[in-house]
Amino acid sequence: MTGNDSNADEAPVTPDLPDSPFHTTGTDHITIWGSNEEDTIEFYRDLLGMPLVLRQPNLDDPSQTHLFFDTGDGRILTFFVGDRPSARGQRGGVGAVHHLCFSVDPDEYEDVMASLEEAGHGYNVFDRGIFHSIYTKDNNGLVIELSTDKYEIPDDRRGEVLAKAQELREADGADYAKDEHLRGAIEELGLEVVEHDLPEASAGVGGVE
Questions:
Q1: Domain ranges, ordered by start, for the chain
Q2: What pLDDT shows up at residue 184?
Q3: DSSP state of 47
Q4: How many other C-beta atoms are found inside a 10 Å radius of the C-beta of residue 67?
Q5: Which residues, 6+ apart, have CB-to-CB distance to 29 below 8 Å?
Q6: Total-model pTM
Q7: Do you know which PROSITE patterns this protein is assigned to (predicted)?
Q8: What does residue 78 show for φ and ψ, rounded to 5 degrees?
Q9: What is the three-class DSSP state of 134?
Q10: Could you tell me which of 103, 134, 160, 171 has the fewest CB atoms within 10 Å of its CB?
C-alpha cells in the first residue's frame, strides 16, 4: 500500500486481529543509536530508573557496546554506544524516531517532574485528552514522553478500550479523543471506572521547551 492509496483513510479502527499472514505477539525490544555508555546509563538508569540488565559487544560491530535496559514491564530498550559525545538534537524525516514513550505510575507523577527538574532536564506537561504526558529529552536530544493513564485500564483490554473511545469520538464528531470518550468506553465495556488524581495541565501542543 502506498501513501496515495485511497483506502488508507478507510482502514477500520478495531482491536480485532487483521487478516494478515501472521501476527506479532508483542514488542520485544527497540534499539537506538546512542552516544557513550556513561551518559546513556546516567539518563536511562540513574534518572528514569531502568535497570541495566545486559551489557555486551554489538554482535555486528564488536567495537561498540550494546546496552540493554528493562523499561519496567520486561520489555527491553537497547542502545549501541561507543565513544561518541552526546548530541544536542535529532534529525527528523521519514523513518526517523519521533519520540519514545514510557509509562509511569500515576501516584509518582509529581515526583517524576520534581526529579527531572532536580536533574536539570526541562519538561512540559500536557493533558492529552485520554492520558497525561510529561515531555523531556534524553542526553542525545531524543524526545522522551512519560505518560500515565487517567483511568485504570487492564493491559489485556487496552486496545479494546482505545478502539471503543475512537468509536465514541467519531460519533461525537470530535477532532480528538477526550476524557469523556475514554470514560464512556470503559463504562460501555463493563469495566470498573477508577480515575487517577492527576495535576491540572494544558491541552497544548509541542514537546519540550
A1: 28-84
A2: 96
A3: I
A4: 24
A5: 68, 75, 76, 77, 78
A6: 0.82
A7: VOC
A8: -125, 160
A9: strand
A10: 171
Distance of CA 154 to the CA centre of its chain: 17
Burial 129-162 (b: 16+ CB within 10 A, else e): bbbbbbbbbbbbebbbbbbbbbbebeeeeeebbb
Q: Say which residue, 65 or 28, is predicted with more confidence.
A: 65
What the block records as the C-alpha cell of 140 is 542525545
Burial, 209: exposed, middle or buried (Cβ in 10 Å; 0-12, 13-18, 19+)? exposed
Q: Angle 179-188/158-172 helices, nearest 10 degrees?
A: 120
Give the CATH class of 28-84.
alpha beta
Q: Could you give the dihedral angle defined by the CA atoms of residues 97, 122, 205 and 183, in that order, rounded to the nearest 10 degrees?
A: 90
Rounded Cα distance, 64 and 80, in Å: 6
**Residue type for 110, please?**
E
